[in-house]
Write a structure and sequence with these properties.
Blueprint lengths: L3 E9 L4 H19 L4 E9 L2 E9 L6 H12 L14 E7 L3 H7 L15 E8 L8 H19 L5 E14 L2 E14 L5 H16 L10 E4 L9 H4 L2 E2 L4 H4 L20 H18 L5 E8 L8 E5 L8 H11 L4 H8 L30 H5 L3
Parallel strand pairs: 3-4, 7-8
Antiparallel strand pairs: 1-6, 2-3, 2-9, 5-10, 6-7, 10-11
Length: 386
């Protein structure tokens, strides 16, 4: 019998309060790494009406004007309109930062602590995932949700749409048959807007100029349901409508609910934190496995102990789609990928200011960015396993 089910993923725009925080935290990280690649950064941000709070643990030789970084980031997102409850030039900025714990530092500094190698910045589990249902090897539900919002942001920033504001959300529900996308069942989009646009004008524009230009035509039909600004009004939005925090959109950042998640956020963390760097390695491994044709879907789990270089465990699951056994694939992974923190950092050149660009619209499947963990340069080596 055919296996039918619905699956949904959501995305949020760069103007969503939580994403504003992610971008500020990563902008601070980038500013530190630009001056001092050895910076240790764990930066958290909170936003609300007219206020930004930046806190965390930072040890660096860099000299950074935090207030300038905050205002520049908010302005770039599009919060540059006075009178809407939050704008880059008038918001208050509070900084509460102190240095990293020396007990943690010795665990992630080569030659210090109990182990001589650079160890993991914390214990924990990280996951990577890939699927062949899109060219980006990402779940279609999430990829199309992200693309809808990227198009909307581009139209807004180009001035093609005067009534659109930075805060928006999307959601795509796909009907699957035998684990393959069959059709788009429902699309939900909510976007902050100016007072003077009608709901019909807004809805027609989003459906015809955004959704139908993002989602492949063959996936939409006359039964597809569209919910556009389903409350009827979304004028009050952004940090004025809802407070935001760094790290609250971890599913949006990763795979939209597919695969699994270890719980650690990415933004504001330098790559000594395996929450970030090992999750990138997990994606790199999973993507190369799928790109090599070893499986249609692949989930990779990495687990670490704080201060220890070698992962505690590496696990993979191809959901029964593997051309060879998962055990054989895992042997190939261990032969061709080093998952020690220093190897990941050096291999991906992670001590660079490359992170703010990842803090909105996902860290994976980004064809618009040159991200080292998205490369498929291990395909030839993995194909030999066949």
């Amino acid at each position: 019998m055919a296996k039918h089910y619905l699956f949904t993923s959501e995305s949020v725009s760069e103007g969503h309060p939580d994403k504003v925080c992610d971008q500020i935290s990563d902008a601070v990280l980038d500013a530190m790494l630009a001056q001092d690649p050895a910076s240790r950064v764990a930066c958290e941000t909170m936003v609300t009406t007219g206020q930004v709070v930046v806190a965390g643990e930072i040890t660096t030789k860099a000299v950074v004007n935090f207030i300038d970084v905050v205002r520049k980031t908010c302005r770039k997102i599009g919060y540059d309109v006075p009178g809407i409850g939050f704008d880059a030039d008038s918001c208050g900025v509070l900084i509460a930062v102190h240095s990293q714990s020396p007990d943690i530092s010795q665990g992630v500094t080569e030659g210090a602590g109990l182990h001589k190698e650079q160890g993991a910045g914390d214990q924990g589990i990280m996951f990577g995932y890939a699927t062949d249902e899109t060219p980006e090897l990402m779940p279609a539900t999430l990829q199309w949700s992200q693309n809808i919002l990227r198009v909307m942001a581009d139209l807004r920033k180009k001035g093609a749409v005067k009534w659109m504001r930075p805060d928006s959300k999307s959601q795509v529900t796909i009907e699957y048959e035998n684990d393959k996308p069959k059709r788009v069942h429902t699309v939900v989009v909510s976007t902050q807007h100016a007072e003077d646009v009608t709901h019909k004008e807004l809805s027609d524009y989003i459906i015809n100029q955004v959704i139908k230009k993002v989602i492949p035509a063959g996936m939409l039909d006359d039964k597809t349901v569209y919910h556009i600004n389903p409350t009827g009004r979304f004028v009050v939005g952004g940090p004025h409508g809802d407070s935001g925090l760094t790290g609250r959109k971890i599913i949006v950042d990763t795979y939209g609910g597919w695969g699994a998640h270890g719980g650690g956020a990415f933004s504001g963390k330098d790559p000594s934190k395996v929450d970030r760097s090992a999750a990138y390695m997990g994606r790199y491994i999973a993507k190369n496995v799928v790109a090599a044709g070893l499986a249609s879907r692949c989930l990779v789990q990495l687990a670490y102990a704080i201060g220890v270089a070698e992962p505690v465990s590496i696990h993979i699951d191809t959901y029964g789609t593997g051309k060879i056994s998962d055990e054989k694939i895992l042997e190939g992974i261990k032969a061709h990928f080093s998952c020690k923190p220093k190897a990941i950092i050096d291999g991906f050149k992670l001590l660079r200011p490359i992170y703010e660009q990842t803090a909105a619209y996902g860290h994976f499947g980004r064809t618009d960015l040159d991200l080292p963990w998205e490369k498929t340069d291990k395909v030839d080596a993995l194909k030999k396993l066949l």
